[in-house]
Amino acid sequence: MSLAIDAFTIICVAAGVFFYVAGTIGLIRFPDSLSRLHALTKADNLGLGLVALGLLPRASNFPDAFKIIMIWVLVLLSGASAAQMIGRALRRGRR
Amino acid sequence: MNVQPFLDISLAALVIGVALFTIIAKDEFSAVVAYVAYGIFLAIVWVRLYAPDVALTEAAVGGGVTGVLLVMAGKRLDVSATMVVAKKPSVAFSAFVAACSILLAGSLAAVILSLPDAAPSLAPQAAAAAQGPGAGLGNPITAVLMSYRSFDTMLEKVVLILAVVGVWSVGADEAWGAAPAPFGPATPSDALLFLAKTLPPIGGLIGVHIFWTGADEPGGAFQGGALLAAMWMVAMMARLADPPPINSRWLRLALISGPAVFLAIGVAGAMLAGHFFAYPSALAKPLILFIETFMLLSIAVALPMLVAGPAARKGVR
Questions:
Q1: Are residues B297 and B197 part of one domain?
Q2: Beta-carbon contacts below 8 Å between A and B
């Protein structure tokens, strides 16, 4: 059982780290701000989501697990809002 | 092989790198963004040093509130820069400033390096004091802050209020008593509006939780207050709330309530418990939490008022 949990954590966190690395490469390599924003949100949403998912079975009790989920939800909320605002500012600037 | 030291060294290098970038950044906005990142990295350093209380404060104040403060200050400077002709400082003056900075940093480093091996520390006395008058609190940091060095903690909040008074006093004479300029444009974007309607209930709850849990676990009035302040600022940026007039009574009462309650209970302690700022041991925990509640309020009001700036004349943004 603990082996299965370990394997689950390793797979999820590794997948999360993959998205973080991919997002970072995109942030550095993509040509314009909108594409960079796109890369960044992948890292935040999927990367952090998978890391949080992988850490869930390690939480010692329900409140801790709930806090891990809430961290992800809050980052989703602020990340998505910030991306929208930056995107809008970019469009205004281009006109 | 243990990778921990390598991670720590990378983290330290990262902090120094970001600090350097903050100094050499060409425009002030990049410098501010780098400074915020610097605050976040520093918070991780504090976590690695097993100081989660400091880490929370650094993340909330160093990373969050200071960042907003600097962005708003930069915006005001931009406005005034169009009026004043910007003059680049001469090379000699830059060199002089650099020399002063190096001298200051160098002497600080020399002092720290010349400390005796077992550096003088008040930690044992503080820990002992936390066992006594701060009894009942599970978080030794809060016990030390509120009991061992309670007078310092009270004065820190007074400094915060003095800062607000300082900001207010640079406003124009005819604007005195009016409200500071609103934070953002009259029609905020839908995304910001959505964020400002969704986040504050959650953030407010987390702020109060961090304050309440600060009695027994990492957290406390400053960290919680900074979060509440941030929530108010988000609401003001989305124009759901405008900064209150600086002569409003509730605003001024809320500002001074923290130190005032602290001082009143401190004086009462002189009569009831034997000396200034002593708590009757049976009542120590409820009294400390009572004081901290008002500190929370003071901090949550003072930080946004610092960001809002002085009162503005009508029609001036």
A1: yes
A2: 21
